[in-house]
Design goal:
single chain, 54 residues, 2 helices, 63% helix, elongated
Length: 54
Amino acid sequence: MGEHNDHRHNPMQHPDEQPVVSNQTPQFGKLLLVLAAAVLLLALITWASVAYVT
């Protein structure tokens, strides 16, 4: 019977929301390194393609 009472508050039977607060700190340093590596890789590809075409 308790299951039927839940349908009034959750008619679509969605799971409970996960808490927003995380125990882990954001890894901005790693993200910045990956971003810098991606920019350098794109610059290298651009330079190599221009050198190859001309």
